């Protein structure tokens, strides 16, 4: 039967065992997982499964903090195995060392179709339970029970439930557990999706940190420890910002040497680790951007400052991202651009978005432009349009969840000419190619939902996402972007 | 190139470059003179125009430049470059050849558009590209070319009338002569380019001059002999003989039951989803132990295999390394049972049971890896080990049991401190790669992993992930 099906186009998937162990309560626990080899599988159609973004989680945590909502974490056991294999391509499994074929009827781990199959199962379950799937965030489900809002956040096999009233949440948990086998619900969890969470319900703040992960990564990546008495105050010192070959020619010849292949792998591992960490630690965003530019061909210089940045992270590993605080929610954004400071004459754009003036950022990003901008005006206009898009997305998410917003969305920019140009108060020549961005921003401003405001370059926090800073400036920036002011005791 | 294909150029259209900067000006005096001599009209266009195909031309130029860059990177980064006999300026002089080569490569490249799956060569010539006529070898690969005349090649060749082969570098296909390549040679210090199809021994970067490799090999042998004080030269030679004798292929009697293939499927679907049992062809762990000799379990059997293989090449110092590394238990070096290291009885090679490659367990692999660690210093406060295999230094300071005092150095004098991972971090599962069965049926029979493996199978069958197949 199997041979006939294979002859007609069925696929054969090879399974292999994965051996795992951990220390639990002082004892070694072993487990074997039988997973499908993902490298040789058929080109299944329809395998897309949506993944939530970090910003969506932060928005939920911020809203839960300011409204003092309960947060409950559930983890479905052997989640994928509860879903059925639904692809139209018949599949058979084969074990090495066993000549027999088994037809696959469940969503095995390692199958390319399994995430999609499991997502379909979750969607069906949520719709059966009366939830609405968010159009903006496809992994967020919400519903209103009486006057209380319940929001369900789904990430692979983790579920985070939050909402207005405690008894409603408990009732929803009981409903969910009728559909799936989960771990015991954890109220106000201290660890979610690899993040450590501390909550202060009196002050309505949630602190997120990755201290354990940083310590673990420091050991795992064999980071060179700097002197015990040496304090590292910035991720990368300003004088280490070398871009072109000429910059390296002026410096030490040893620093300009390219790393051998084995060292390049280590360098890329460090950069990869920092990419994960920067999801919480926005204060190393620009340092990471600088290091990532040399990801393909790093020099000794880059490796040295990758170790330097890791030492900074280790010494300041406890710095959290603080969300919540003020009960009013107003989307506040900052944007900046630095012309021609990236490799090959490209510019750096930065944006910070927060849900009130004092909280930590929901989004803080620093990126290189795709094109070479010929004027700072052009780069700043690009930055404003990017910030407008992000601000618009956050607003749409909040509005879809029926979260009340106060005031207009404010976007701070440090270029007066751009503001006047966008508002039509200034004539600009030779800028026809910028029209698309211009009209987009004008359209948004005319909705009377957004406000473009000038802020001097020395005060705007995004300035430190476009360049390296000295210690004093970096500390002010870190406090601002991570919302550390909320932790201050009055 | 066009002229060779019967289409002489009558007009050349170029942009005028930046007129004020002669460096970028296309039509300088040399170009004008050449065009006049060839009777080619020169048409100048505006510097850049989005709508008149200039981007296409510039894109093609960038492709050519990219290919040329790759070719020069290939030759200059070749570790055997010094043995080629070419100097750097001589290679640079070949830029024109590489220019032609890159055009030939682009012309032979299939179009990326699926509905126009053809080459530029085919579009121009009207016939499909025959790779037997266009000789495409790896660029700058080293070959031996036939020289019909031996006079002047070198002093040796002047004394004989035998055909001579000369080392050359491939620099592209010949456009005019089918099946011929263009090869760069250095004769009496002069760079020349030959067009020939008579060549042999193409080597992509490996180098045909064996003397540098021989020199390096001899140096390694001498260094190894000097270092292995505890091993006599005869033992060393016998070790070499053992390594070159190949891995035997007959299983020992104790290992045979472990490697039997199951006769029936692991999942017996005829009577419902049941976990594998001894009667279904896969013996349960208890059954396996009953089948083995009284002092044997799979691990012991594999350990004895490891002893047989590893004993002759493990010195006393290397056993000490293994013991110390075991005591440290960092993630850097796998754990090895000390019993497998301190095996006393090396058997004569002829009497050793012959093993298949699969029968070599990961333990044996680990022991052989440890054999790369060499004690550099002993009897002092610190003990140094060096691995020529991974080019790392390992220093164990007193007291050796103190985990935090273990320091690892790499070949670039960078210090790494190894310390044990605190238990508090061990909160999630970590993958184990060492000392694990290679297949799932083997895991079901393994005394360590059989329990978790059966538990996994039970979960899969309870979840009804599998249906009847064959």
Structure description:
The complex is a heterodimer of chains A (490) and B (470). Chain A has 490 residues and is an alpha+beta fold. In chain A, 33% of the residues lie in helices and 23% in strands. Chain A has three domains: 192 residues, no CATH class; 105 residues, no CATH class; 167 residues, 2-Layer Sandwich (Nucleotidyltransferase, domain 5). Chain A is built from 13 helices and 19 strands. In chain A, a hairpin with a 2-residue loop joins β1 and β2. In chain A, α5 runs antiparallel to α9, α7 packs parallel to α9 and α10 crosses α12. The longest helix of chain A is centred in the last third of the chain and has 25 residues. The radius of gyration of chain A is 25 Å and the shape is globular. Chain B is built from 15 helices and 14 strands. About 42% of the residues of chain B have low confidence. Chain B has three domains: 156 residues, no CATH class; 37 residues, no CATH class; 177 residues, no CATH class. In chain B, the strands form three sheets. Chain B has a five-stranded antiparallel sheet with strand order 6-5-4-3-7. Chain B has a five-stranded antiparallel sheet with strand order 8-9-10-11-12, covered by helices on one side. A two-stranded parallel ribbon of chain B has the order 1-2. Chain B is an alpha+beta fold and 470 residues long. In chain B, β4 and β5 form a beta hairpin. Chain B is extended and about 85 Å long. The two termini of chain B are 62 Å apart. The interface between A and B is large, with 46 and 50 residues.
């Amino acid at each position: 039967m199997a041979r006939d099906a294979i002859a007609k186009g069925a696929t054969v998937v090879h399974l292999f065992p994965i051996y795992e162990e951990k220390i639990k309560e002082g004892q070694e626990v072993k487990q074997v997982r039988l997973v499908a080899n993902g490298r040789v599988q058929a080109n299944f159609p329809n395998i897309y499964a949506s993944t939530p973004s970090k910003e969506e989680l932060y928005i939920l945590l911020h809203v839960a903090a300011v409204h003092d909502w309960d947060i409950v974490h559930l983890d479905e056991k052997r989640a994928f195995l509860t879903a059925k294999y639904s692809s139209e391509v018949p599949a058979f499994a084969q074990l090495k060392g066993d000549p027999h074929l088994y037809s696959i009827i469940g969503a095995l781990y390692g199958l390319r179709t399994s995430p999609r199959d499991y997502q379909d199962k979750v969607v069906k379950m949520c719709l059966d339970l009366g939830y609405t799937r968010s159009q903006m965030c496809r992994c967020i489900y919400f519903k209103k029970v009486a006057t209380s809002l319940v929001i369900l956040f789904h990430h692979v096999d983790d579920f985070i439930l939050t909402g207005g009233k405690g008894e409603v949440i408990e009732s929803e948990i009981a409903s969910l557990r009728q559909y799936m086998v989960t771990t015991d619900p954890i109220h106000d969890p201290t660890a979610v999706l690899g993040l450590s969470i501390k909550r202060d319900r009196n002050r309505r703040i949630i602190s997120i940190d990755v201290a354990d992960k940083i310590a673990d990564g420091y050991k795992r990546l064999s980071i060179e420890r700097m002197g015990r008495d040496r304090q590292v105050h910035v991720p990368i010192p300003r004088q280490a910002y070398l871009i072109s070959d000429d910059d390296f020619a002026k410096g030490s010849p040893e620093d300009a040497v390219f790393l051998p292949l084995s060292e390049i792998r280590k360098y890329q591992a460090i950069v990869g680790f920092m990419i994960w960490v920067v999801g919480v630690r926005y204060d190393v965003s620009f340092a990471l951007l600088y290091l990532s530019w040399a990801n393909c061909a790093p020099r000794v210089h880059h490796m040295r400052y990758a170790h330097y940045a890791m030492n900074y992270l280790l010494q300041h590993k406890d710095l959290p991202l603080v969300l919540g605080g003020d009960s009013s929610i107003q989307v506040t954004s900052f944007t900046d651009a630095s012309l021609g400071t990236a490799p090959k004459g490209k510019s750096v754009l930065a944006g910070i978005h927060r849900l009130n003036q004092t909280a930590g950022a929901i989004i803080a990003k620093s990126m290189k432009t795709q094109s070479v901008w010929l004027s700072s005006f052009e780069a700043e206009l690009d930055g404003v349009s990017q910030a407008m898009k992000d601000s618009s997305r956050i607003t749409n998410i909040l509005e879809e969840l029926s979260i009340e917003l106060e005031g207009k969305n404010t976007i701070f920019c440090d270029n007066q000419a751009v503001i006047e140009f966008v508002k039509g108060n200034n004539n600009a020549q030779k800028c026809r190619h910028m029209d698309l961005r211009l009209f987009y921003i004008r359209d948004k401003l005319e909705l009377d939902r957004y406000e473009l405001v000038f802020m001097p370059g020395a005060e705007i926090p995004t300035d430190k996402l476009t360049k390296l800073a000295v210690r004093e400036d970096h500390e002010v920036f870190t406090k601002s972007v991570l919302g550390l002011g909320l932790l201050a005791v009055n | 190139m066009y002229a060779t294909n019967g289409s002489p150029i009558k007009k050349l259209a170029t942009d005028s470059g930046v007129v004020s900067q002669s460096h970028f000006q296309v039509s300088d005096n040399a170009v004008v003179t050449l065009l006049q001599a060839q009777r080619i009209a020169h048409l100048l266009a505006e510097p850049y125009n989005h709508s008149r195909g200039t981007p296409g031309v510039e894109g093609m130029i960038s492709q050519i430049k990219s290919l040329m860059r790759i070719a020069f990177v290939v030759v200059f980064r070749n570790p055997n470059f010094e043995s080629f006999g070419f100097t750097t300026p001589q290679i640079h002089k070949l830029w024109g050849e590489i220019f032609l080569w890159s055009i030939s490569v682009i012309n032979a490249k299939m179009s990326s558009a699926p509905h126009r799956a053809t080459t530029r060569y085919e579009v121009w010539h009207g016939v499909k590209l025959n790779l037997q006529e266009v000789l495409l070898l790896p660029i700058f690969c080293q070959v031996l070319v036939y020289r019909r005349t031996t006079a002047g090649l070198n002093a040796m060749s002047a004394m004989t009338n035998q055909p001579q082969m000369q080392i050359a570098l491939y620099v592209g296909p010949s456009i005019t002569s089918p099946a011929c390549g263009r090869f760069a040679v250095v004769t009496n210090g002069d760079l020349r380019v030959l067009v020939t199809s008579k060549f042999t021994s193409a080597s992509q970067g490996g180098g045909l001059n064996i003397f540098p490799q021989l020199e390096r090999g001899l140096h390694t042998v001498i260094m190894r002999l000097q270092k292995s004080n505890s091993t006599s030269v005869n033992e060393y030679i016998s070790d070499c003989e053992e390594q070159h004798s190949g891995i035997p292929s007959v299983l020992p009697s104790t290992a045979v039951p472990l490697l039997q293939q199951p006769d029936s499927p692991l999942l017996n679907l005829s009577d419902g989803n049941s976990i594998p049992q001894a009667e279904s062809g896969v013996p349960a762990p208890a059954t396996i132990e009953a089948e083995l000799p009284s002092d044997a379990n799979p691990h012991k059997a594999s350990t004895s295999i490891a002893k047989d293989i590893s004993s002759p090449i493990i010195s006393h110092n290397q056993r000490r390394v293994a013991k110390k590394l075991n005591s440290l238990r960092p993630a850097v070096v796998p754990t090895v049972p000390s019993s497998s290291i301190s095996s006393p009885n090396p058997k004569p090679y002829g009497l050793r049971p012959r093993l298949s490659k699969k029968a070599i367990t990961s333990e044996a692999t680990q022991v052989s890896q440890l054999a790369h660690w060499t004690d550099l210093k002993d009897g002092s406060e610190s003990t140094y080990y060096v691995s020529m295999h991974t080019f790392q230094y390992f220093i164990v300071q007193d007291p050796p049991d103190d985990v935090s005092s273990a320091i690892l150095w790499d070949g670039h004098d960078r210090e790494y401190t190894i310390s044990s991972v605190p238990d508090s971090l061990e909160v999630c599962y970590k993958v184990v790669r060492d000392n694990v069965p290679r297949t799932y049926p083997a895991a079901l029979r393994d005394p360590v992993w059989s329990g978790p493996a059966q538990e996994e199978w039970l979960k899969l069958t309870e979840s009804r992930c599998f249906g009847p197949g064959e």
